[in-house]
Hints:
Number of helices: 8
Radius of gyration: 21 Å
Amino acid sequence: MQLLDELAMIYLECILAYAVFAHRKPPLARILIAISISAMAIFITLYYHYLQDPVFHQNMFALITAVVVFRSMWIMEHILNPNRRGSVGKVNTTEQKRRDERDSHILKTMWRLNYIGLSYVAIAFAIWNLDNIYCGKIRRWRREVGLPWGILLEGHGWWHILTGIAAYNNLTWSIWLRYCRDGKQDLVELDWSSTFTSMPVVVRAKSQEKEL
């Protein structure tokens, strides 16, 4: 059960890796990418089952996540940063300025979404390590505190909550970035009223709703 619990994280990142690297590729290239990523996931699953070493899982998860995140950041900068992207097709100066301002705003918000997600991962990783290092002491504290407040000292539980929020942020970013890669920035926007007390959601842009 622990393997299934932890390997789900690997499989999620593999799906994101496919979404990032296979976008707009020819059919044959998409098939080869899918086969390669599936083979990697199978190898990690079998080797982790053989090793039974959580460190291997952590390293593989960190490696795949880093590749997906940095590749997505590169794409984000090169399609949204006006200084890197250049002009957008044959448009007049007014429209070019509007698109530059729109994309600069999207880019700024995406970076904020990334920073928040990475902060959740960093906090979760710190809690996870502290829980492993001081497991016996924290367990005694939980017994002394008792239910229901002892639940707040469940480090592994906080790991899942915080990484779950980070994964949600990452998925939201990936969805929004995919729209941008298709040149559909005007069709959607991010509904995120508060950084820490609300969850970001990609929704239909208000300008599009008025046209319906």
